[in-house]
Amino acid sequence: MNHATLPLSRRIAAFAAAACLLCVLASAAVLAQGSKADYERSDDLRRLVEGKVAKSRVEPRWFADGKKLWYRLDLGAGGREFVLVDAEAGSRQAAFDHAKLAEELAKKLGKEVEAAKLPIDGIEFVDQGAAVRFPAEGKHWKWTLADGSLAETEAFELPRPAGQPAGRGRRGGQGRGGPPPGERSNRSPDGQWSVEVRDHNLFLRPAGESAASESPEAVQLTTDGTAEHYYEGNVRWAPDSSRFVDQLQPKLHTHDYLKPGDRIAQSKPCLFEIASKKQIPIDDSLFQNPWDISQLRWSADSRRLTLLYNQRGHQVVRLVAIAADTGEAGTIIDETSKTFVDYSSKQFLHYADDSHELIWASERDGWNHLYLYDSRTGDVKNQITRGEWLVRGVDRVDDEARQIWFRACGIYPEQDPYYVHHCRINWDGTGLVVLTAGNGTHEVDYSPNRRYLLDTWSRVDQPPVTELRRTEDGSLVCQLEEADWSELLATGWQIPERFVAPGRDGQTPIYGVIFRPTNFDPNKKYPVVEQIYAGPQSAFVPKRFSAYHGPQGMAELGFIVVQIDGMGTNWRSKAFHDVCWQNLGDSGFPDRIAWLKAAAAKYPQLDLSRVGVYG
Prior knowledge:
By secondary structure, the chain is mainly beta. It contains seven helices and 37 strands.
């Protein structure tokens, strides 16, 4: 069968069936491979490596002045120590004399206490840092640092860790643009009116009136609501309470999922005016074929509302403005593509109402970057980020400082382009600061005053390193910890190997990882299995360190297991991603084949006469 001649829907179905068949065949190959000892070793691997990496995690507790922090460091085998860091001085030291405290605590408790295994989970610095208090052994204690005295105190609760903005790689409060102004509520902002749904239609009534009342003061605003197309009743009010907008929703039916070309139920916004108690017709010519209409948002002056329109087929994503008094619609941003607009993972929209601007993400120059717009005219004021790298996500937009804190991929050309780094830039495109540096993928915790960050980075072949850095320029204050994996390596654990080879075009680097069994013999040949997922929504080769990756369990059965991100997957250039366009059956196999041939040329242990996939 020539899949290229089939309609797209049948090609997708054929590919899915082929993928299932490959999974079955791979499973059969697995059953035929490996001894009972191999299966037992595979089953035990996760337990074998668990807890074998020390000093891998730092959870900072900042002092109120933002100049110092402390953390508890787990040393492995039940050991722990408490560390004090002076960010301004760039110093790291023990938070107190652990041996002395162990000695004093042993006297109070009447039993031996090890300095490296203090029975303390958390502490609190008090008296301007001159003393430490903590619970231990069912009692509460205060340790005075200057004279080393230990006294029992009244019970207290240790403070909870303060929330860190946009830490550990989380998206900050901005997300995909943050919630629109004006609470989504049935009651108007001035408290005078309430909207309710009766028999699928909208009614407006004074807010003090009972919802169950049939009072003539309740005015019916619509008559076209039905069980099939009903008004949602979850409205967005204009800030001045003069109007509101609601969504006319299709009724949900459970049925087989829609195929390309099928008719789909469509929602649309509906606008209502309070003074006339009438609906204002909206010109929907700019959003007639929606896959989705979202982010309905009123302007602060209540004169217009905006919505984000994602056209079916995803070749148009449009920001539309609607005049509140007439319902006339106009385009602010018209994002188009001959292939597809990646609305699911790269969309970003932030409104700066005070300056009549907005920030928008686009791949129009071949890479995902940020642009500054005039929100009134739709003109691009300037491109904010640029280069052969991409914005992975926005953590924070500072309207006052006119700065953006974001995550980037590929910003260091000498590193793996999938590694996530953290950056800051001004809205006018100046002042780019890369806040992280280590050759790996990064997660950060910012200090409460945002003057410092704890940067933890790792690779599949490098356990975590934690550094303290300045946010002003990204410069290193001091290294805090480097994880100790000696106990892990002593188990025979095989370090995953990063491997790069050109793809189908002989030029584009394709990145992957090789996993070998713990009893790997370099003089043997091994069948090769790929754990595969080729969906265009993301990239799937692991980048962070872990003592256990799923493919390692499979490798124990007598395989060399690989993971590869071929063309058509996400988080590279737009051209790299576009390979998947109307071509899902490709799945990057030409790149995977080229990669495997290059790996086998370097490592003859890979037997390419026996290759399977699963996933």
